[in-house]
């Protein structure tokens, strides 16, 4: 089955009809490109100009869908028109075919056509002057350039502008896509940061509340219940205060600042005292100098989460918290007796180790947690300067 020709664009139909009607008007009033005694005109009948006119108008229907075919047929048609008295409308439509072949044709055709038409223009200028030895021969070159090279060069310029605009549009879309990806990643990173802060700030207090409330409910001793309720109240108040600070960050909108009272290593003693009040036998050993604020926050949160895990999982015995600064890194190590309980003393989400590992990784440090003989050891190495972890 023969392939059907593509449907012409509506603008091409308008151009074809306009060229055909213009040529009919010129033919009707008797305006031709050449006089009857012109030696190149082999057919003097006026109606002969209508045949190239109609064919050229038909080529205009293919200017966008089949530009190469339209240009080839149009070139043959223009040659045939030169054998008649000629129609200006046929010549004008041919220039449009040259323009369309460069604009809508393949990239190779768009490069070749301006060079070919330029070469034809040069030949049409030099050859008549050399053959006739008269300056009037330049008019033939000028006319040839106006019909062939000028529309080809115009099409090349327009095509370059169109391709440049398309490239800029694609670049803008890619930039917008990258910006959206960056925004999504920033939102995800901010959510992860908030999740770590929420877990580290609240989990310690809620674990203590769960453990002491269990003791108050299971032991029928008024003094034990009062002591448990006092610890529960203290942890509830502290947890509520930290929750309010975190909510303040969420409402801030900028999302680029830490809580109003960012924990520091100076607060480790208070943190350890709270763990002791919750029933842990904690020994604190610190040896460090001035530490950057991000490292201080990460070390504090790692110790806090380790004590929370020890409160929930560790067996009886001493919990040791040791911080030591060596060269350009801060070593954080927390050890606790390895527990043998069938279930933890308080429920957990299992996100504590993940959060500690993320905090160390964000600073370019290392993190490890696991059983070390009879102990459960948590160790983090936090660089004090960029690149110091290696």
UniProtKB/TrEMBL annotation:
Residues 190-253 form the Signal transduction histidine kinase subgroup 3 dimerisation and phosphoacceptor domain. The chain crosses the membrane at residues 12-33, 45-62, 83-107, 113-131, 138-158. The keyword Transmembrane applies. It holds the Pfam family HisKA_3. One of its GO terms (cellular component) is membrane. Its EC number is 2.7.13.3. SUPFAM superfamilies: ATPase domain of HSP90 chaperone/DNA topoisomerase II/histidine kinase (SSF55874). It catalyses: ATP + protein L-histidine = ADP + protein N-phospho-L-histidine. Keywords: ATP-binding, Kinase, Membrane, Nucleotide-binding, Phosphoprotein, Transferase, Transmembrane, Transmembrane helix, Two-component regulatory system. It comes from the Bacteria. InterPro entries: HATPase_C_sf, Sensor_HK_TwoCompSys, Sig_transdc_His_kin_sub3_dim/P. One of its GO terms (molecular function) is protein dimerization activity. This is histidine kinase. It comes from Streptomyces sp. R21. The lineage of its organism: Bacteria, Bacillati, Actinomycetota, Actinomycetes, Kitasatosporales.
């Amino acid at each position: 089955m023969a392939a059907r020709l593509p449907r012409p664009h509506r603008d091409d139909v308008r151009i074809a009809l306009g060229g055909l009607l213009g040529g009919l008007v010129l033919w009707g009033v008797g305006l031709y490109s050449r006089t009857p005694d012109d030696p190149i005109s082999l057919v003097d009948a006026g109606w002969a100009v209508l045949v190239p006119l109609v064919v050229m108008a038909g080529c205009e229907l293919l200017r966008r869908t089949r530009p190469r075919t339209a240009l080839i047929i149009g070139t043959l048609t223009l040659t045939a028109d030169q054998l008649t008295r000629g129609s200006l409308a046929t010549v004008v439509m041919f220039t449009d075919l040259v323009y369309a072949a460069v604009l809508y044709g393949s990239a190779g055709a768009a490069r070749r056509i301006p060079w070919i038409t330029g070469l034809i223009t040069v030949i049409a200028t030099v050859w008549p002057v050399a053959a006739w030895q008269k300056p009037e021969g330049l008019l033939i070159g000028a006319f040839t350039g106006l019909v062939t090279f000028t529309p080809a060069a115009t099409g090349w310029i327009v095509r370059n502008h169109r391709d440049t605009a398309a490239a800029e549009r694609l670049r803008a879309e890619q930039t917008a896509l990258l910006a959206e990806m960056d925004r999504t990643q920033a939102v995800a990173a901010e959510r992860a940061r908030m999740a770590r802060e929420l877990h580290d700030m609240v989990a310690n207090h809620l674990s203590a509340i769960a453990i002491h409330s269990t003791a108050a409910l299971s032991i029928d001793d008024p003094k034990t219940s009062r002591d448990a309720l006092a610890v529960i109240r203290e942890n509830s108040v502290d947890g509520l205060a930290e929750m309010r600070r975190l909510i303040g960050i969420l409402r801030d909108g900028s999302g680029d600042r830490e809580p109003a009272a960012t924990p520091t290593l100076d607060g480790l003693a208070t943190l350890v005292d709270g763990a002791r009040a919750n029933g842990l036998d904690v020994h604190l050993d610190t040896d460090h100098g001035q530490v950057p604020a991000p490292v201080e926050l990460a070390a504090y949160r790692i110790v806090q989460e380790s004590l929370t895990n020890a409160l929930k999982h560790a067996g009886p015995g001493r919990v040791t918290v040791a911080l030591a600064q060596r060269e350009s890194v801060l070593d954080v190590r927390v050890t606790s007796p390895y527990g043998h309980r069938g279930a933890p003393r308080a429920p957990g989400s299992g996100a504590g180790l993940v959060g500690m590992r993320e905090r160390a990784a964000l600073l370019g440090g290392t993190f490890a947690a696991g059983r070390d003989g009879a102990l459960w050891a948590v160790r983090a190495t936090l660089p004090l300067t960029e690149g110091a972890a290696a």
